User: Fold this.
Amino acid sequence: MSTKVDHAEASSEFIAETDHLEFHDRRLWDLRKKRDRAVAEVPEWEQLRELASAIKAHTLTHLGDYLEQFERAAQANGVTVHWARDAAEHNQIVHDIMASRHARTLVKSKSMLTDECEMRAFLEPRGIEVIETDLGERIQQLDNEPPSHIVVPAVHKLRADVAEVFGRTLGTDPTNHDVHYLAESQRRTTRPSFLNADAGMTGANFAVAETGAIVVCTNEGNADLSVHCPKLYIASVGIEKIIPKTEHLGVFVRMLSRSALGSPITQMTSHFRVPRPGSEMHVVLVDNGRSQRLGMADFWYSLKCIRCGACMNTCPVYRRSGGLSYGATYSGPIGVIIDPTYDLRKYSALPFASTLNGSCTAVCPVKIDIHDQIYKWRRVIAERNALPFTKRQAMKMAGKLMASPKLFRAAVEAAGAGVEYLPRVMLYNRLNTWGKQREVPVAPDQTFRQWWLKHRAQGKEPGGES
Amino acid sequence: MKVGLFVPCYVDAFFPEVAIATLELLERFGCEVGYPLNQTCCGQPMANSGCEAEAADTEALFVRNFSDQGFDHIVGPSGSCVHHIRDHFTAIDQTAEVQHVRAHTHELVEFLHDVLGVREFPWAEFPHTVGLHNGCSSLRKLGTASHSEAVHAVPFSKPMTLLAGVKGIRFVMPERPDECCGFGGTFSVYEEPVSARMGQDKVHDHQRAGAEYIVSADMSCLMHQKGCAERMGMPMKFIHIAQVLNGAHQ
Assistant:
């Protein structure tokens, strides 16, 4: 059985590293500000959000049809289409495609889906070397860590950390923290891989049903090199990435990079549709829990996500706890609402790693009601008995106390007990936890109710117990 | 106009002065204010923890308290509690009585601004430099001010509009005016490390902007921020908007 993720504990370790925490918070807040400026330059932004959300809603409610249309179009283009029910099938399909062609090295651009499927861990023991070619993802691979952010995978690392990782793994000078030096070092070690690899892989930002095209948005050009150098190209595509028509890119591409990084568009928006002469192109369409999520009345909206990361950048909790503290492929607000669909118990603490402040919902380009879903997940977790026992007990006690004016007053007004008892009543447990870094409020001489009885009720008897 | 005064549990216990200011303010504008004596809580702490069943009796009690005295409106000085009543009061059957209570419950600022439509507070003077803190429920759910994510929205702030009617008050703007302060109800204890750090960052942001006071319509946020500031030995002061509008002199 999987171990429950303890987000609070993990975040305390993240916060203890002050330099890292402050850089992380500033860097991501800076992306949020850039997003605001980029959005400000598009007067019809709110209409675009409506459109994007509606296109996604339409597509998801006709998903089977569009997937089949995509398959037909792709096949007509000479592409081989595979269907994977889950991560295991996806990994096996990729392995079989490669193994049957004696392909032993795979260069790939960033794909959250292959992280979700833990593809590297499957392929590598089976003799297939996987080389991440996105700079951030490569740093994470070399450091044997998952990405901490879906757009900027190594954002939790300082330059010095990267220099250390590269020094250890690429043999560069670990004391040289210069960004250009580090980027160039990675470039020099990755370039030969493109030329020598047997196969290339990308994820997909969009898969266009009418044309069978895979659309990949990157800033480094590494996806194009991964596709165009080797003779075998495999695209791993989550089934929710389908959009009906090319013209819909006119909505999504305008929003993606503005939301993610505050730039009008990514450096490269590549459309891969037809295998070039002498090469093969395969598309693996992956479900892995998505159709089950599509059947959840309260949560299917999360499938609209275009993985821009705007909700993460704006999230004050994410910025102060780091992506790795969520212990899942997807972190931040979007992670909080999709991770429980993979493993409710393991990720049962995540919907509580939120203040329900709603900033995520307000920046989401496809209008996912993220904070409402977080609220609803809490109920599901309580209903399925996945709350910690002490919390459940505390809530039962609180529920009884708050439903009884008599018990409530006894708790609030008991002479001298206010300070000690009340925070426990209101904050439900762990008085010490409140007091670790905060003063406990001082209980006044009288409650408001006592004041009212003295000054306003003029000897009238208080209302009876109900 | 008959108004039922809703005093959230933590305000009753820890901040009676906020409830008194709310009461006096409503009376200054001619409201006939009643205070149901059997009120406890709105049920939000249980419901926000996912325990809707445990919130049901408390929600039912709230409705009983506020539905039988002929109140035209129910007013409370706390955005998140009012948000809970209005938008999340779903643990109980939605009878006509329940729906009436939910629809007629207001947060103090929106009641003053929208229902009473008042702008002048001639008795109030607050010659201090203040930073305004909008609780997230007030801001993004009740919509008492425009929020920074909606960059094309026409900027407005109901609390700021009201405070502008107070003599001598000066405002400063922190760098991240609508970043959450990290209180979040039970989040403040179950996610203590992040919560405390958010609170520290929030008060530092106001301090850098030059605020002497942080003013808010949400006392729970202030309770948390004050706790953080005091522990750090920071001389920041905190006051509820009801007190400022009611003419508090500090």
Summary: The radius of gyration of chain A is 26 Å.
